[in-house]
Metallo-dependent phosphatase (Nadsonia fulvescens var. elongata DSM 6958), 701 residues
Amino acid sequence: NAIVEDTQLIFPLQVGPLANTQDGILDVNPLAAISKNLSSSNIRPLEWGQLNFLHTTDTHGWLPGHLMEPSYSADWGDYISFIRHMRQRADEKGVDILIIDTGDKHDGNGLSDATLPPGYLSQDIFKMADIDLLTLGNHELYRAEIAKQEFDVIAQHYAEKYLVANVDIILDNGTIVPMGRKYRHFQTKNLQLNIMSFGFLYDFFQNAPNTIVTSVVDTVQQDWFQDLLRSREFDIDIFVLVTHIPVRDFPELEVIVNEIRKYYLDTPIQIFGAHTHVRDFTIFDDKAYAIESGRFLETVGWVSVKGLNKTEKDTSIEPLGENQVNSTYNVTRKYIDFNRDSLMFHSNTTSDQFVIPAGAKVSELIHEARELLNLTELYGCIPDSYYTTRAKYPSSQSIFTLIVDKILPLLKSPIEAISARFDNPRMIIVNTGSVRFDLFKGPFTKDTGFLISPFKNDWSFIPDMPVSLAVKLLPILNQDTRTLAELGLHFDQNKQKCHDYYNTIGYSHLGVPTDLHDCELYYNQFMHHDNDEGNDNDGGIDLEMIFEWSKIIPRKFLYTLVSTYRMLSKKSQLSVGYVTIDDFGTEGDDTMHTPLPYYHLPNAVQSIQNFSFEEISRFLEGQKLNYKKVESEIETKAEDEEEPTIDVIFYSFITPFLLSALEELEVREQYADKIQFYGGKSLIGLLQEFVEGGWKFDYCE
Ligand SMILES: Nc1ccn([C@@H]2O[C@H](COP(=O)(O)O)[C@@H](O)[C@H]2O)c(=O)n1
């Protein structure tokens, strides 16, 4: 695509004199100003402390905001305005505020992914935000050129503010250098609080060959970390960890906190987490807390801290104001819906005051970049919405049912010898994590494809695998961790088992990020899980009561209670959105909503073609069995019958997982060498082909 490639020549975009300005205020994104169904009367205010934080994470390129969802319709320019106002408020109050981002800036939006290389425009737009502490995510490391871009553009721009202790990059000349600084010690502007900050990435293993990820366990034993903690060289009022690590269920954060606690028994630790795309807040001890602030720029996390004591050596601190003094340590958190109404409410600004020129300029750049990339080009119209976790799979509203039934069958290899096999029996396996977002009824533009599945993944295949073997693959990839929860009365007893399971097998890294919380049956998931098909927006649940129940009732029983309670409760008048229950309770969301439904998804789904139902049903029996039963019960074919074979096609991304599955089946040696390149369009291309073939309309209703 020439336009896409041309972007290399013309960026940085030059913004002309601001158009449509009213007193220097520019509204370039008309949808950003829409506040349908939004009402500030439902917004809960933020509580300020001595030290306050704004947190974004897993933005995945959504800098233009959500053009079809008013609740999340602000854009990165608005965030820049918001930051400015919140810094000013902090100054007025004589307290401090730090702006944090914890990574994953690629893969999820045309703005970041429609350029060559991906991120070519979006990284320059991202870095216009005045961020105090940031780290990278796994999506900055999947591809070598993106890792290099992250190092060249983001790490260099933010310099000492860009922290990551456990990732190195191998430069073109072969030198190995850290991706960012390992730590930052500094004092805050107003209260001169001493901050010690570290950046960490979870134990990620699918990184590009020009990068090295060291496990968290090993990193905290390294001399620099141990010496720094042991030496007590720095005054430290609070540790601030900026991490791309989930705040629940993953073991890494506990490892870091435990190591710090060996030397600093009760110095506050505030952690910013990431990766699983949820709103969550967890308690490690009475002075160590962690927040995760959702995904896709739907959420800005807020944390405030009171009761910080200056370290003894420092005498420069001014006496704290009335609201700031608190002998006991106190932390609050909020999840802000990313729309202008919420941002104006919290920054105490009117629509005339909110947009500052620097914010307007960034909104304009986003708008121009979208135009340049033709992201609004219409390919067709979607007649109904199809959902990822909001609909049960399989069902008529599930995007995965659409993919399995209609999209994957379009896959063709561009290689002649392989495309000749098109009518042979074939099975196409795709990981559900490769689908990032819901497909909403309405226009399908060039951008939509990137929102749904941004990855340019290749396809691989194993030709002619015996069907009885091929049908065992998906059940293994989908090993159901929830069966582990059934093993004991309370899940916590199985937590270690669950972590061991994840860490050794890792299949869960194939599924949608939110399902990584299977280890704890994440509250929101069972709260919103319905037994019927489709969406059920019942509201009116007494969240406080459920929170109390959760302390005494095993979660599997709680699930039944919640389902029953939901059925009995009244319809709510609130708009649908996030309803979060975290370790602090039920008041975290700044805007009260009726909860969205949530359904667990398998790690992977498969589409089978050119194979008769009768023939396959005999061999598919094993699919319904859980992992434990696979080994013993799959031998269904008669001894003397010639076994049918099938081509097994899969996203190359899942190759390591497929190899593990083959290993579990004790046939890895036999089949690893048979894996071949298949080629063909990735999901984004197939989806576009389908839309243009079946849903090509010149206008949308
Ligand atoms: N080329 C790729 C890269 C990633 N995925 C999927 O994304 C998941 C990771 O995304 P997070 O936002 O959770 O970091 C990964 O587990 C895969 O499911 C992919 O399909 N192709």
Notes: The chain has a mean pLDDT of 82. The chain is about 30% helix and 15% strand.
